[in-house]
Amino acid sequence: MSEEEDIILSELPDDELVPQMQDDLYDGLDEEVVEGVNILLERGWMPYDVLTKALVGGMTVVGNDFRDGILFVPEVLMAAKAMKAGMAILKPLLADTGAPRMGKMVIGTVKGDIHDIGQNLVTMMMEGAGFEVMNIGINNSAEEYIAALEEFDADILGMSALLTTTMPYMKTVIEELAAQGKRDKYIVMVGGAPLNEEFGTAIGADSYCRDAAVAVEVAKDLISQR
Amino acid sequence: MADVRIDDKILTEKGLNTGAAEAKTLLLACGALAREILAVIEANGWTHLALHCLPAILHNSPQGIPDAVEAAVLEHRPNYDEIFVVYADCGTGGQLQQRCEDLGVKMMAGPHCYAFFDGVETFEAREEFTAFYLTDFLVRQFDAFVWKPLGLDRYPDLLETYFGNYTKLVHLAQTDDPALTEKASVCAARLGLEFEHRATGYGELTPELARIRP
């Protein structure tokens, strides 16, 4: 996005530094994003403001351009790596500095599925929006999901699958929740490349989310309805 | 049909259209299967089958497959008694199966061509969910279908992001070609995965096509 050279981030005023950080995030420049985060913190910015205005703001542009076919998966992942580097600095500071807490989510890929790129993006964007997320990784059984939900005292269950062969397991998890009388305790959101709205409805999920940005908006909406 | 020139780049981007004038059934297939289907047809001397392949690169955007298949079915249906779709589910989440049912055409069983080359039941029983598969076509076209679309030529740092959860690359080999096996092993090394060569031949492709009567 940015073509300037030899920009000294520390010499930029805030109103130029933040857009520059968004450009750097868009371009996947993790070292520059980390530098920008540290500069804003040194200038007295609240961690939550750095997160939302510089990082989430930049990632929103990335998400929009991905949706519109301007950016592709590799570029989105490089931007996500840059955002993750910045968030690594901010995350330990957020809880102690009054950042809003939106709710708690457990997320993981279903049994037999190792494809975690999507859920890692969702995790990052949810955290960026003020949710606490317990990412339980790949290949999760119904028992593992339910144990994590209880351990984390979660509000939301997120399940992800990339394979046509593994996505039906989401229904198994939802049925197990229902069998244990726990279905109504949790908002269930599902996502993954082969899924669609119809599938989400058919298996009894509360929402199918097309991408990470949609997941954040849906989560906010469903939490507010509780 | 044997003298049809087959170019992987054309199969990837444009597809293929070939068949005897007397053909009654059209095989509507993924371009990645063109060589294998033509080899099976030639080996069995079948003149009742014509072949139309869609661009193989749809493999990388499976959400586009059902619409592409439907358009091809509607275009070619007037010229044939029957159309058989030589795609498996291919990551469409069951949508290709549904579309084929709506169109009244049959298709291959299984989640991917990997499964019908290996044998659908055998493939599912293996439960190799940490395996990354390449067919002969995908070995030849590794850069066009894997390396470049994933951006690994530009962002090698993403290798772990994409393949960190995989343990091995399995070459499902349709032909006995030592040079291709060597290329597949190099692909595995580039992805940082163990390599396994598995000779499948054409698997369930031959018996499935043999069911189509002249």
UniProtKB/TrEMBL annotation, chain A:
Domain B12-binding: 102-226
Gene3D superfamilies according to UniProt: Cobalamin-binding domain (3.40.50.280), Methionine synthase domain (1.10.1240.10)
One BP annotation, GO: methylation
InterPro entries assigned to the protein according to its UniProt record, in alphabetical order: Cbl-bd_cap, Cobalamin-bd, Cobalamin-bd_sf, Met_Synthase/Corrinoid, Meth_synthase_dom
UniProtKB keywords: Cobalt, Metal-binding, Methyltransferase, Transferase
Residues in B12-binding N-terminal domain copies: 8-102
Molecular-function GO term, any one: methionine synthase activity
Pfam families: B12-binding (PF02310), B12-binding_2 (PF02607)
CC per GO annotation: cytosol
Similarity annotation: Belongs to the methylamine corrinoid protein family.
Protein name (Swiss-Prot/TrEMBL): 5-methyltetrahydrofolate--homocysteine methyltransferase
TrEMBL record, chain B:
Pfam families in the cross-refs: DUF1638
Domain of life: Bacteria
Domain DUF1638 residue range list: 53-206
Name the record gives this protein: DUF1638 domain-containing protein
Species of the source: Actibacterium pelagium
Classification lineage: Bacteria, Pseudomonadati, Pseudomonadota, Alphaproteobacteria, Rhodobacterales
